[in-house]
Amino acid sequence: MAEQPNHSDVVLSVRGLGKKYGPITVLTDVGFDVRRGEVLALLGENGAGKSTVSAIIAGLVRPTAGTMTWMGKPHAPLSPADALSAGVGLIHQEMRLLPDLSIAENVFVGRLPTRQGRIDRASINRRAEEQLRRLGLDVAPTTLVRDLKVAAQQQVEIAKALTLNARLLIFDEPTAALGGEETDLLFRRIEQLKAEGVSFIYISHRLDEIARIADRIAVLRDGQLVATHETAQIPVKVLVEEMVGRPLDRMFPTLDEAPGEVLLEVENISSPDGTFKDVSFSVRQGEVLGIAGIVGAGRTELVRAIAGADPISSGVVKIQGKPIGLHHPSDALDEGIVLVPEDRKGQGLILPQTIAENIAQTNYEQIAPSGWINPRNVNHFARSAISRFGIKGQAEQRVSQLSGGNQQKVVIAKCISRNPRVVILDEPTRGIDVGARAAIYDVVADLARRGMAVIVVSSDLDEVLGLAHRVMVLSRGINRGILERRDANRLAVMELATT
Amino acid sequence: MASIAGTKAEDAKISWTSYFSGGAIGPFIGLIALCTFLAFTSDTFLTLRNFLNVMDQITVIGVMAIGMTLVILLGGIDLSVGSVLALSGMVLGYLGNYLGWPFGLGIVAALVVSALCGVVSGLMITKLNMPAFIATLAMMSIARGIASIITDGQQIVGFPDWFSSLAIIRHFGLLSATVAAMVVLTIVFFVFLKYRPAGRALYAIGGNPEVARLAGIHVERATLLVYTVCALLAGLAGVILSARLDSAQPSSGIGYELDTIAAVVIGGASLSGGVGGIGGTVVGVLIIGFLRNGLNLLHVSPFVQQVIIGVVIALAVAADTLRARHR
């Protein structure tokens, strides 16, 4: 796909880039080139320095060492606006749009053209529409951003950069919030823009995507460039080992074969708004049930309902054959059902609080059985959870300072310390780097070994297939079938998921 | 990670200091500095007599600030406390002086009426999903209106001697009953917030209500209860004020909600919820109390006092946000 490399094609060259925050070095001597009309994938674990590199190129952060050359001229942007006017745009993982303004207003925010002192709405609407059409987005430029889906909002971000004649777009985890079809659409746009000569730096944890979209790969580890590949067709195992820095014998732990008695039974449950309908399944002690399906299939809604977080309009949930009433998350917790939610920051953690406080919150029955809290016990409890789950942090540290993987471990620790009977993990490794992922898989297998019934919801098929004894596939809110481990493979799952 | 384990002594130090400071270290230093300054500039400031006077003066705000701390911890706000205070005093005066109820019963009734105001505010917030600012703004107007309707805007003067003496007689030469009530309530709520799971639940709700709900906390119930307690304490403050002034009037307590919020915020609480505590609020109340007292002793005009208090609020919060940015 890439043409023969040619040095005159280099649009951005980065040499000896370094960044220190006080005594802490986050980036050392990073150097690479980006060529005209190519996608350079930037890989690395969380904290490897990918985001710092992109932030420096996009003018959000200033380097402490090194130089950059952009289109033959020195590139040292002092602000994102600086970088944008030079033609370098950064598309954030989380959208930075104003939800109550129109698409056109968002595209031109901060530089609204005026005519006779008034905003020239005709012109911004026309110019925004041109870009939207170029991106294949069939919506009126006057639509409020609030009314758009996440994927369309991302297109607006791209349109915004394109109206500034961006020649290099940096994508930071662009597909984290997208479903399969939306990802395909995004990739088609990228191909199209590549043909127009736009270059890309593409950051993602999804290695299967890298093989599809990237032309070349640069791998960072601990703030240093450890490898560059002239092609994206590199075995995943090689990339992972480069990112982690050690050979990975196995990603998934072995599961015990013989699960025990049926513990959780879900019979014909439906949601009031129809996001899932008439779903039945059961999970045994010591069993891991995977739930697969495409985004919007109703997986998260289903498990939230089982955890008492959302209402059920019909059907029953039984524990050891006994129906339980689910009106509030506390009802599920009382029955030993815990949910590790999909959205760590929004639903799993209280960010301004410490690790100790976060873990203690759901475990006061154990920490303070008398009803009186001894702060020393809180810290003691947290420290044992920290060592049990290998959290890199201290009890008194705020969870907002932790990496994604460690935050996820805190959420798991706070749920599991209750010694639950049923553990539901919704997208347990989303946005988490490879090394931390393996650690979380080990935790999941360990839970099953201890006789808990475990449910893992994931959009990552390998994860579901690698971890689960059985895989239930949902599509449009309906249980399309439960596959035994020996029958479960990508093809079988995708067939059911797209029915 | 060798550092995680640490030594026993280190662990104890880390846990105890951080657990009790709760962000109130900065305001506490400010309080000490203020007292030191006043001790040097005024020869009457550093006397027991003056200290007891200040305690009397801060009782009303002090009691209200306890309830406001709970509300602000939840990420809410209660603008109605000044009006509820007035309503409580008017209900008490009307039942006792106009209808001839036993005064003790009147106090109970005044507290019940106040608590009901909180229930209504709480229901507007939890059941009708109204923003706390709007719901309590409405209650502020409603309670003030009812307080005025009771006697058509007339004040009620002259309560039983035993009642007024609650705020006057200093037992053991130190504490009047009203000041004692404030001290006891402060300790009770301090302990509640620090050492009871239900108290810690308020921090969780203020930090992130959805996380709290998924952790099994009944967020709506807690919210309703907190607004009720806040209004109840405002009602108690109304009873205390009536005892101090030996009268009740529908216009009392105007602007007290802002003084109360100021005290809580000076004490290091965050209006976005989840951060703060009784320790900080006590410091905030004392700063406002000592500042007013000291400025009076130094013969600073009340108008200038207002300016100074405004500056103190701004400085306290600015110091806090600057500290947060450094972290």
TrEMBL record, chain A:
One CC-aspect GO term: plasma membrane
Source organism superkingdom: Bacteria
Record-annotated ABC transporter domain positions: 12-247, 261-499
Cell compartment(s), UniProt: Cell membrane
Database matches in InterPro entries: AAA+_ATPase, ABC_carbohydrate_import_ATPase, ABC_transporter-like_ATP-bd, ABC_transporter-like_CS, P-loop_NTPase
Gene Ontology MF, one: ATP hydrolysis activity
Family named by the database record: Belongs to the ABC transporter superfamily.
Protein name as catalogued: Monosaccharide ABC transporter ATP-binding protein, CUT2 family
TrEMBL record, chain B:
One Gene Ontology term of the molecular function aspect: transmembrane transporter activity
Highest taxon listed in the record's lineage: Bacteria
Listed Pfam families: BPD_transp_2
Keyword Cell inner membrane carried by entry: yes
Keywords: Cell inner membrane, Cell membrane, Membrane, Transmembrane, Transmembrane helix, Transport
Membrane-related topology note: Multi-pass membrane protein
One GO cellular component term: plasma membrane
InterPro entries the record matches: ABC_transp_permease
Subcellular location: Cell membrane
Predominant location category: membrane
Segments traversing the membrane: 25-46, 58-81, 101-125, 132-151, 171-193, 222-241, 261-291, 303-322
Protein name, as recorded: Monosaccharide ABC transporter membrane protein, CUT2 family
